[in-house]
């Protein structure tokens, strides 16, 4: 399951200016942290919504939902899914001809995407300001 959320953010000229002052490695670290925290918002909700089979000894889907961050070139993304050891998660999410779907990933994204986007914005602003202050204090010191 892949999807993209398009987002228009207004009033970020100051943030963009400050971000441009940072070295590429710092920019990447700031983006990684923002995406990781946003992914965690959705991951926690998916974990809460995932079905749990008390009769099974495991591994349990609910205990193996993961968030990953990928930053390569023009691609910056956070993905939420499940560990390979719980491959049956795809059958829970989408269903089969013998099993009705019990979606948990898509509903997690649907209910938490606003909060995740806010988290990205908050972390970016916080981390960029912090990095700029650190950079300026090195110049002054």
Question: Could you walk me through the main structural features you see in this protein, from its secondary elements to its overall organization?
Answer:
The structure is a single chain. It is elongated and about 65 Å long. A hairpin with a 2-residue loop joins β1 and β2. It starts with 12 loop residues before the first helix and ends with a helix. By secondary structure, it is mostly helical.
Explain briefly what this protein structure is.
The chain has helices at 13-21, 24-49, 89-94, 105-140, and strands at residues 65-72, 75-82.
* Gyration radius over CA: 19 Å
Shape: elongated
Order of helices and strands: HHEEHH
- Strand order, sheet with most strands: 1-2
E-strand count: 2
Tell me the helix content. Answer: 40-55%
In DSSP terms (H or I, runs of 4 or more residues), the helix count works out at 4
| Content-based structural category | mainly alpha
Biggest sheet character: 2 strands, antiparallel
Report, as a whole number of angstroms, the end-to-end distance: 50 Å
Low-confidence stretches: none
**What is the number of domains?**
1
Q: Which secondary structure elements does this structure contain, and how are they paired or packed?
A:
Elements: H1 13-21, H2 24-49, E1 65-72, E2 75-82, H3 89-94, H4 105-140
Antiparallel strand pairs: 1-2
